[in-house]
Amino acid sequence: CHSDECRKMSTTERTFIAVKPDGVQRGLVGEIIARFEKRGYKLIALKLVSPTKDHLETHYEDLKGKPFFPSLISYMLSGPIAAMVWEGLDAVKTGRAMLGATNPLASAIGTIRGDYAIQTGRNICHGSDSVESANKEISHWFTENELNKYNNPLQSLIYE
Ligand code: IDP
Ligand code: MG
What we know:
By secondary structure, this protein is of the alpha+beta class. 41% of the residues lie in helices and 15% in strands. Residues 12-149 form the Nucleoside diphosphate kinase-like domain.
């Protein structure tokens, strides 16, 4: 089923979440993972990677014309990135809400950026902005083999 109604009910929606190099170096990987775990999302994939410039330019290809694009790419190249896939009801939109606004100063307290970051150019994390870009990003960062298939017995405690 691919209708909007079904999508709203889908407990298998997936989003690509990444801890950027500043977040990794500041020791925030565990904190960010913990928030998604505690919320009830299911961890499908997880790795620490140092992608090429090419890989990052493709990831951010929609921003290619922006004046901050070169500094964004060097920021993303400044260290390893913790890449992950989380699955669950409304994972894309809720994932973005958990991250907070792009500009951390505009992010609500209680969000990841609102609690741990100050500037847009050092906003510690990435989250897909739509189901369509999530699918694109997941296949850009992970092979099919890296997307783990397993049963989580806690599902019945998280979903009615
Ligand atoms: P998002 O990460 O909240 O989806 P986007 O607009 O997709 O925000 O921008 C991607 C990333 O590019 C941001 O997370 C931030 O790191 C960086 N960025 C966006 N706008 C600016 C800016 O005006 N100055 C510096 N960096 C920016
Ligand atoms: Mg974005």
